[in-house]
Amino acid sequence: MKEDDPLKQDFMCGHKGNITCIAVSADGSMIATGCEGRASDVVVWDAASRAEKFRFCEHDHCVSCLAFSADSRLLLSIGNSRDRKAFVWDVRTGCIIASSQVPLAMNNDPNTAAACAWAPGTTGNGHYLAGSVGSPDVHLWSLDPYRGILTPERVLPGSVARKYTTARFSKDHQWLFAGSASGDVVVVNVARKNVQLSHPVCSLGVGAVIEVGSNLLVGGGDGSLTLLRPEETRSAEKPRTVLPGGVTSLTRSAEGRALIAGTDHGRIVR
């Protein structure tokens, strides 16, 4: 769909199975899609021409989540609990930079990633940092792009046990915000690799999280849009508005002056 003409739609066809995840690069030039099934490929599309740019065929069974890096150079793809593979792709060349297995949970059950995200920028040594959340664990991933090494590390949950649904880093990449199916946002201290705080926000689970200045706007499964100050210990504010249907996605408009929300009723609200 196009913002200036919401009735005009373009279709990109390239998957044989159901689409399970989608990501758009920060510069708006690329769209990545993943699917489930025997041919669970990741396809990177040129956003302007709608043409297929690259096809990655390394996953089996299902691609659970995708995320472009902030500089639009890298794509992280993570498979489901049967696949247990994670890849970082160079979307300029289509080559694999690094790969790793998704670790088992502490009880040796498979981890299922529901969402992943990259931290803005790189660390002091030029490494990239990413995070993935799901059921039951949160992982921080360190990428050494020079040696092609992708290393996962489990976040210590403390007494917090959640099924996670969304992931978002703070602008200074000191915090990872993980929305949960319980309706709260869990704050992870990246340096310490442990859970710091938990903020109850909504009912029916957190569907989407986006940064608004130094705050977070949280979209709930109950349709609520709530502003949260994540580093404070007090609870979130009352919902700013309630949409018809649970919020499944949040993004900014092209000019950055409006927010766009998708709902599980099939609506797009600006």
Q: How are the secondary structure elements laid out?
A:
Layout: E1 19-24, E2 30-37, E3 42-46, E4 52-56, E5 61-68, E6 74-79, E7 85-90, E8 95-101, E9 112-118, E10 128-135, E11 138-144, E12 149-154, E13 164-169, E14 175-180, E15 184-189, E16 194-200, E17 206-212, E18 215-220, E19 224-228, E20 241-242, E21 247-252, E22 259-263, E23 268-269
Antiparallel strand pairs: 1-2, 2-3, 2-5, 3-4, 5-6, 6-7, 7-8, 9-10, 10-11, 11-12, 13-14, 14-15, 15-16, 17-18, 18-19, 19-20, 21-22, 22-23
InterPro entries: WD40/YVTN_repeat-like_dom_sf, WD40_rpt, WD_repeat_EMAP
Organism: Tetraselmis sp. GSL018
Keywords: Repeat, WD repeat
Question: Would you mind describing this structure in some detail?
Answer:
InterPro entries: WD40/YVTN_repeat-like_dom_sf (IPR015943), WD40_rpt (IPR001680), WD_repeat_EMAP (IPR050630). Pfam families: WD40. The protein is 0% helix and 51% strand. Strands 1, 2, 3, 4, 5, 6, 7 and 8 form an eight-stranded antiparallel β-sheet that branches. A four-stranded antiparallel β-sheet has the order 9-10-11-12, with no helix packed on it. Strands 13-14-15-16 form a four-stranded antiparallel β-sheet, with no helix packed on it. The mean pLDDT is 91. β5 (61-68) and β6 (74-79) form a beta hairpin. The protein has a domain at 19-154: Methylamine Dehydrogenase, Chain H, CATH 2.130.10.10. It has no helices and 23 strands. The protein has 270 residues and is mainly beta. It has strands spanning 19-24, 30-37, 42-46, 52-56, 61-68, 74-79, 85-90, 95-101, 112-118, 128-135, 138-144, 149-154, 164-169, 175-180, 184-189, 194-200, 206-212, 215-220, 224-228, 241-242, 247-252, 259-263, 268-269.
